Amino acid sequence: MRDPSWLIAFAIGLLLLALLPTWVDSYNLTVLRDALIFGLFAASLDFFWGRTGILCFGHSVFFGLGAYIMALVSMTPDIPLPSLLGLLAGITGAGLLAGAVGYFLFFGGVRGSYFTIVTLALSVIAQQVAVSWSSVTGGDTGLIGIPPLMFGGLDLSGDVASYFTVVALLATVLLGLWALSRGRWGRILTAISDNEMRAAALGHNAALRLTMTFVISASTAALAGALYVAMAGLVAPDLIGLLLATEVIVWVAVGGRGTLIGPVVGAVLVQRAQQEISSFNPSLWPLIIGCVFVLIVFLLPEGVLSIGTRIRALFRRGAA
Amino acid sequence: MSSSFLRAEKIGMRFGGLQVLSDIDLEIGERSLTAIIGPNGAGKSTFLNVLTGVLRPTEGVVAFRGQAIGGLPLHRIARLGIARKFQIPSIFSSLTVVENLQVARWGSARTEWPEDELLEMIGLRDRRSVQGAELAHGEKQWLEIGMAIASSPTLLLLDEPTAGMTPQETADTAALIHRLNKKLAVIAVEHDISFVRALGADTLVLHQGRFFRQGPFAEIEADEAVRDVYLGRR
């Protein structure tokens, strides 16, 4: 997406989100807040997948790790600033894991679908650990009673306060990732994804650059996970497993890979559809999400947001 | 091994049972101009891959400024000041012309060539915002040479730089190489004899993976044995 149109879309989106609390009730506001957290998670995957072309099928591992670490740290009695420490520990933990995974895979020459398969295995392992290590993770039932966000005397647990916290963090992170994507970092990544050997022959350490991008992406996913548990008050193995790893890929694919904003829109829309459909038949959802995924891959590989571009192209062709 | 600029000693390269290069020596100085010629299958591209450190020779050593470079990661070789233009134009097709040059520049610690001068030199000033994928074949070749220069190397290796170019473009390329040669050493692998003649460089002839002749191009061109090799009489 070109610079001005991205910034316009960003500004309009932010304005809408800022005005929304004036006419939306508090239940719907919290539903949207949670959807936006998953939107942040989708943007984190898009920063890696969209720029490098390498699909991570285990991004829920980093979301879940951030969530579990946040839960464990913020529930520790008598520590100062539990929310802040929890967030920082979650982000650092996920970053370290991503650094280790990235180091062994990227420096070992693993790319493309092989990377996807290894990360898929990672999400299965992580879910198994979350279920089996019950003394720490609470097993199948997970952990409940996680305290809401508090920074010193600043209480961000109210519906409106927590909503605006999420919107502010989402906007800041999106701007940061966008600035990275359009600048030197993003161009070198595009070059590496175009022709890695050529980039290396020009002096770029592709494996290091990919690993660092993966760490940034994973840390952002962990931020989303940590925020989510502080808002929801509970953490369970479904926040680290394969189903969430698949869903986030669908959100990015629906919204449009490589656009950063698109995946946030995708996450909100798909979750809204999930609620509507699940309300009359809960077992229908996995079938529908699968079909939607296949249709998007075949009909709209650039994502749902690309419909506008396609219609414009059709009109231009018609006018010519 | 003495610390000359680029030195290859007794290079041999074997792929399984196939001996592609045997016993080749080459030593060049700073700001030298060298052409490597030979018929198809003579081992020119393999030798270039050995010289750039992409392939570690099975026998012998390649040293750049006294440091053995065989088997070093590609990006470290590039940072030593060795740039390369591949045989098939390999540019970044999702990036524009000017972005391609930027990425090349960012890979190096040195920036000797201003962006505008580079664009002028490769004749793509008016095409600076065009995406790599939309360039014509000749323009891609020029852009790739521009990318190699943008990384401010001290040694530039060109693998068939004029492949697919018109006679005029070929002559322009030879002129560009002469201009660059004032600042850096160039090694060009080529089988277009008119281009090598225009270069007028010290020429190394390879034949069946072995050293065959080396000397000024005028002498090489007049050599009966070299002609026989090119005409397939040997």
TrEMBL record, chain A:
<protein>
    <submittedName>
        <fullName>Branched-chain amino acid ABC transporter permease</fullName>
    </submittedName>
</protein>
<dbReference type="Pfam" id="PF02653">
    <property type="entry name" value="BPD_transp_2"/>
</dbReference>
<keyword id="KW-1133">Transmembrane helix</keyword>
<feature type="transmembrane region" description="Helical">
    <location>
        <begin position="248"/>
        <end position="270"/>
    </location>
</feature>
<feature type="transmembrane region" description="Helical">
    <location>
        <begin position="160"/>
        <end position="180"/>
    </location>
</feature>
<keyword id="KW-1003">Cell membrane</keyword>
<feature type="transmembrane region" description="Helical">
    <location>
        <begin position="114"/>
        <end position="133"/>
    </location>
</feature>
<dbReference type="GO" id="GO:0015658">
    <property type="term" value="F:branched-chain amino acid transmembrane transporter activity"/>
</dbReference>
<feature type="transmembrane region" description="Helical">
    <location>
        <begin position="54"/>
        <end position="73"/>
    </location>
</feature>
<feature type="transmembrane region" description="Helical">
    <location>
        <begin position="85"/>
        <end position="107"/>
    </location>
</feature>
<dbReference type="GO" id="GO:0005886">
    <property type="term" value="C:plasma membrane"/>
</dbReference>
<dbReference type="InterPro" id="IPR043428">
    <property type="entry name" value="LivM-like"/>
</dbReference>
<feature type="transmembrane region" description="Helical">
    <location>
        <begin position="214"/>
        <end position="236"/>
    </location>
</feature>
<feature type="transmembrane region" description="Helical">
    <location>
        <begin position="30"/>
        <end position="49"/>
    </location>
</feature>
<feature type="transmembrane region" description="Helical">
    <location>
        <begin position="7"/>
        <end position="24"/>
    </location>
</feature>
<keyword id="KW-0472">Membrane</keyword>
<feature type="transmembrane region" description="Helical">
    <location>
        <begin position="282"/>
        <end position="300"/>
    </location>
</feature>
<keyword id="KW-0812">Transmembrane</keyword>
<dbReference type="InterPro" id="IPR001851">
    <property type="entry name" value="ABC_transp_permease"/>
</dbReference>
Automatic annotation (TrEMBL), chain B:
<dbReference type="InterPro" id="IPR051120">
    <property type="entry name" value="ABC_AA/LPS_Transport"/>
</dbReference>
<dbReference type="Pfam" id="PF00005">
    <property type="entry name" value="ABC_tran"/>
</dbReference>
<keyword id="KW-0813">Transport</keyword>
<dbReference type="InterPro" id="IPR003593">
    <property type="entry name" value="AAA+_ATPase"/>
</dbReference>
<dbReference type="GO" id="GO:0005886">
    <property type="term" value="C:plasma membrane"/>
</dbReference>
<keyword id="KW-0067">ATP-binding</keyword>
<dbReference type="InterPro" id="IPR003439">
    <property type="entry name" value="ABC_transporter-like_ATP-bd"/>
</dbReference>
<dbReference type="GO" id="GO:0005524">
    <property type="term" value="F:ATP binding"/>
</dbReference>
<keyword id="KW-0547">Nucleotide-binding</keyword>
<feature type="domain" description="ABC transporter">
    <location>
        <begin position="6"/>
        <end position="233"/>
    </location>
</feature>
<dbReference type="InterPro" id="IPR027417">
    <property type="entry name" value="P-loop_NTPase"/>
</dbReference>
<protein>
    <submittedName>
        <fullName>ABC transporter ATP-binding protein</fullName>
    </submittedName>
</protein>
<dbReference type="GO" id="GO:0016887">
    <property type="term" value="F:ATP hydrolysis activity"/>
</dbReference>
